[in-house]
Model the fold of this input.
Amino acid sequence: MSVSVGIRYFLQNCFGVRHEEEIILFDVPVPEFFGVDIIPPLRRFIRNQNVRFLTSHYHCDHFYPAIGELLACARNVEMIVPAGTDFPAGTAPFPPNTRIVPMAPFERRTDGDFSVRALKSNDEGLAFMILTGDVKIYFGGDLARWTWPEMTARQQKYVEAVFDRTLRRLALWRPHIVFSNADPRLPHWTGAMDIIRAARPEMFVPMHIFHRCEEIDRLAGEGDLGETRLFRYRNVDDAVTVEIPRPSRGAGTTGTPSGRSTDASI
Ligand SMILES: [Fe+2]
Ligand SMILES: [Fe+2]
Done:
């Protein structure tokens, strides 16, 4: 027995996830920043749906101040945002179907079969560990190995410490699907291969590639991905399905033959 999870690419860190009745949407950017129109496919994805919309932070490649107009076509929206940060100036009002839920770093929230834990990013805002049914998803936002050469040693040390702590967390938690930055501007792809080796997910979704989708082929040549599949999207609205094996009944928490813990708690 397995469970199907659909993943759809829109732009930058903006992806949709469909799992049974759950529709999850991440980080809708300002389309004009990229010159790519993602609004029509986003509208098709969320129209008349109950949507969990997670926003990691408000940089323009992650948040669209005019998003309210798009959200109005959904049935209901639960919009999770970083606590303690105001929406950017000029953010349009949100429609009545949208409930804003601020989350602080390390806070956990459960609603039925859906749980989310917020992690503190080493950029701004949050990353998310999500449990939907039996499916474990990590969405990094801009938590990544941002070791730009022009940074001070102290800044680099902080970035590395947060990133390394995340690697250790993911190695223990073993998410099935990992969304993490693979920014081609840094030679180590902002840590994409480190995340794959630590988390060993069924599916790795590279993000933050500025719609230069051909870069994913170069990432694929960077080393052994083990059992992990790479979502090699090419165009806005490309989709892939991941089959996640269901944990067998009575398997306990000691681990499956694949070494993945069946303890899905976050
Ligand atoms: Fe950012
Ligand atoms: Fe970003």
Notes: Residues 250-257 have pLDDT under 50 and may be disordered.
